[in-house]
Amino acid sequence: KKLAEIEKNAASAGASSDELQSKLSAAEERIAQMEADHKSQLDDASKQKEDELQSRIDEARKQAIEEERKSAQANVDALKQQMDEQAATHATQLAKLQEENTKKLAEIE
Asked: What's the CA gap between 72 and 80, in Å, rounded?
């Protein structure tokens, strides 16, 4: 009778052990899935942050290029104005010289 009880307990313990092993395996699978989901969420968040940072870098670069273009254009405009003023001054000086030459030629004749 004791032998039968021991065998029954052993069989019950074996079944219980199999059930626990099954539950443990299922729990490990759920944990692995949760870890994979979490990693995926972190990767997505990281990619989104990377994209946002790249977008801000691109915008800053674009603004810097536009500011540099405006500055260069302002320099070109200032040089053009300076050259126009010098040309006007030279034209005035040339007109005066021509007038003086004309007077001297008239005196000589």
From this structure: 12
Q: How far apart are CA 105 and CA 107, in angstroms?
A: 5
What sign does the dihedral 46-50-51-56 (CA atoms) show?
Answer: positive
H helix intervals, 1-109? 2-108
Q: What are the tens digits of pLDDT across the range 97-109?
A: 999 999 998 888 7
Cα–Cα distance, 59 to 40 (Å, whole number): 28
Q: Can you say how many angstroms the Cα of residue 20 is from the centroid of all Cα atoms in its chain?
A: 52
Give the global pTM. 0.51
Sign of CA dihedral 35, 39, 42, 44: negative
Gap between the Cα atoms of 52 and 38, Å rounded: 21
Tell which phi-psi region holds residue 96, choosing left (phi > 0), alpha (psi between -120 and 50) or beta: alpha
- The CA–CA distances, whole Å, from 70 to 31, 33, 56, 80, 87 equal 58, 55, 21, 15, 25
